[in-house]
Every structure is written in C-alpha cells, then in structure tokens.
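Homework help board

Subject: predicted structure for assignment chain

Our instructor gave us this sequence and asked us to write out the predicted structure in token form, then describe one feature. I got the tokens but I'm not sure how to describe them. Can anyone check?
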Amino acid sequence: MDAASTISSEKNRIASRRPLQEVGPRPYIPSLHTSSRNPSHRSNGDRFIPDRSSMDFDMAYYLLTESKKEKENAAAAGSPSREAYRKLLAENLLKNRTRILSFKSKPPAPAEGLLQEVCSNSTSSCQTKSARQRRYIPQSAERTLDAPEIVDDYYLNLLDWGSSNILSIALGNTVYLWDASTGSTSELVTVDEENGPVTSVSWAPDGRHIALGLNSSDVQLWDSTSGRMLRTLRGVHQSRVGSLAWNNNILSTGGMDGKIVNNDVRIRSHVVQTYRGHQQEVCGLKWSGSGQQLASGGNDNLLHIWDLSMASSNAVPGQNQWLHRFEDHMAAVKALAWCPFQSNLLASGGGGGDRCIKFWNTHTGACLNSVDTGSQVCSLLWNKNERELLSSHGFTQNQLTLWKYPSMVKIAELTGHTSRVLFMAQSPDGCTVASAAGDETLRFWNVFGAPEAAKPAAKTSNTGAFSSFNHIR
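My token output:
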C-alpha cells in the first residue's frame, strides 16, 4: 500500500469516529435476581434419623426371626402347645408396637411472648443486613461511549446530568446532549474559535435550560428543547469560566480571575452578589441542598463556605465575607459534594499534592475526618439511597472508589479508564454514574444499585423564571 492510500485510510478512520457512539460490545451484566447457590436452599425431603436409646432390641430380634418360626410352627402344626406359646409371646412382646426403629422426639415448642418477639425482630434485622451486604456491584462499565476531543484539564467541569434525564458533555468547542431514555445523541451548539473551547456546563433545576461557561469569559444560557440561545452574560469575569452552580434562578459562576458571581437570570442587571476570597482559579462550586450555603474550591488550595444571610448589597462589590475559610488541603480543591442526608455535612477532595477527602461540619467549621486516598481526587458523589460516597481519581490507577460512610471502608474499586477520571455526573434517580476521562471515553456505572421505590418525576414550575430570557439580551 502506497503512502497516499495510507493517509487516505487514516483520514477515513478519523472521520468515522462520531461523538457519543458506543465503543465495542456491551459487557455482560449478571442479573441481580439469579437463583441462590446456597445448598441449604435445596429441598432434600425428610431424612430418617434413628434414635438408638429408644430401640427395643428384644422386639427387633423377634420380628426378624418371626417368619422362620412360622415355618417351624407350620411343620409342627399338630402341637397345640407350640401355637399357644407363640401367641402369648407376641402379645407380651409387641404390645401393639409395629416399628423396629424409632424417630427422635420432637423439639420443644418455640418460646412465647417477649422472647419470641425479640428473636423475630433479631432475625428480621439480620436478614435485612444480609440483603444489603449482598448488593451486587458490577466491576465493569455498563456502557462505554466515545468522547473525542474532550479537554484533559483538571480545573474544568465538562459533564452534567439534568433532571430530564439528559446528559450534557462538552467536547472541545461543541456541546452534545445524550438522552438516557432513548440513547439518542444531538448537538446543542458549536461555539466559534474566538470563544471556545467550552469550559463548563450546568443544567438548571428545570432540566430544560443549560448554562455554558466559555474560555472567552462569557456565559451562555440555552433552551435545550428549542435549541435556541436565550442570553449571553458578558463582563462578569476577565478570563475563562470553569465552574457553574445553580440555586433556583441564581446562577453562580466561578472564573480563573478568582471571582465568584451570583447572577439572577430573570433580570437585566443580573449581577447580585460578588464573592472575593480566592487568589487563583475557582474550579469547584456547589450549593447546599437548602440553597443557603455555597461551597467554593480553588487552585489556591482554599475552601470557602459562603452564606446567603451574610451577603451584602452589590453596591459595594467585593465586600461579601465568607462564613468559613479552610486552609487544610495541600493542593487544588475541585471535588465538592454536599451530603443528602445531613444538610451541614460537606465532603471535599484535594488534587495530586493532597490526595485527601475531608469532611466538614459547615455550621461549626470543624473538620470531622480526613482520609488519604493515595491519588488525586477529581470528583465526589454521594449515594442518595445509602450512606456511601463515590470518588474518582487520577494517577496511578485512574479508578472510581466506593466508600462506606462514616467508617470510610472501601466497598469497591472500579477500573477501566486509562487516564484520570476528571468528571462524574449522577442520573436523576441516583443509581447510575457517568464518568468522563482524559482517555476520551464516557463510561456508565451501575454502582449505586436500584432505587428502593420508583418515584414519579417531579413537575417543575421554574419555567417562569426563564421566560424573560426572550426579552433580555
């Protein structure tokens, strides 16, 4: 094959590589409802267990030799005394007994009352605990999609899963939408070279509108249903916007300039608060479930907690003070996750020079625990159904690790990525986790199991908060 043919073949191979197409055959996932292999579950029927203490050997000897004696008696039928002796012996020896061997006596009846209730509760508790311990965690990804041109940058946030079950991912200058219900892929937008690449994506709570942070410092707001850009927020930052977080109609943006800005997307003058506490790029932003506190992490190794009740008027920019300032991490703080079952509990993860997951009480400012994971912590997610925490890591294993909280015992380690797992997103039902890495793959893991009960999707009423986009530019 000549050189021209080789180059042509390589171009065709690259052109055929389409974003978010499934890679290779889907791995076999064993059913969670397989039959038990425990031998104790097999039906063996009743077994005859002899009880030697209840045997009557005299009677046994008589029954075994009775047929022989009957023949002898038949031969001597002319002797009445022999027949009378046989009948008398049988009456005294058998006494209505017909079996040589005897079963053991039955066990005593179970205890009544309180003791019986305690035993029942204990058994039920043990069965429940055993069932939880038997939860099957697949060790391989349920699905793998191609993600070419994803930016391998620790400080960006390029993956998010909306409440409408649509996953968004930024690959270079283009944002793609993958519908988890149908498996279909669509392109939302490709920004021009002057503004690109896309540096952050975040779904609004309604699952319809999405915010995009750009390398040019602009923030775009899109309607994913109509595919229209509704608004561009300009002049908020002086450099790229690598982190975004929604709190109802408030969109918080974090930039490389170290600023955090709260934008009310309903009004023309959208900047309502500005937080200044970081000296370097803000790479992590997360609002608490109550919407009262905002956690921010930066490349300056700092973690801040901002409280809305302490927010001052935007008329004096830069005067908003943090509630807590934590300097315990020894590297950039990107991974942040608020606990779903304890409102004041925050987990944070440090970069390659730190490698620790720390837990904070954001009411008191106390550090509750610190665990050295042995590798760069890229992202964190809480299990919504169990007290578990999932972390994704960089070198050297590039793994996802599932931890039991609060003991922080490792439950499972999931491997498959060949580069650091920079981004994670959780499905709306809280069961499936999507991870994207520098190896240009997007993988889906059934790590949190099935939900306890199927819940109908909540109807959102936030559409009105975005209706004014059509009139504001």
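Reply (TA_rk): Your tokens look well-formed. For the description, you could write something like this. The chain has five helices and 28 strands. That's the kind of observation they're looking for.
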